[in-house]
Design goal:
With 84 residues, the protein is of the alpha+beta class. The protein is 19% helix and 14% strand. Strands 1-4 form a two-stranded antiparallel sheet.
Amino acid sequence: MALLINSKCINCDMCDPECPNEAITMGDDIYEINPDKCTECVGHYDVPTCQSVCPINNCIITDPDNVESEEQLLDKFVRLQNLV
């Protein structure tokens, strides 16, 4: 599942540099996560780093419109890293 930054975002800039896939960018009003690049840090870390560093509780949540299995996330990681 890709993650989603919701309207609780205060634009603190903590998440953007932590994303190993460069999936987080500044949107019109708040930071946004590109679901095509988000692997929830599968392949990189045990937990999503953006959630770990975010100072706002429940600001970065599972995106209900982009549900993926662990296997799909790992496949996306491999594709993004050009390992195939």
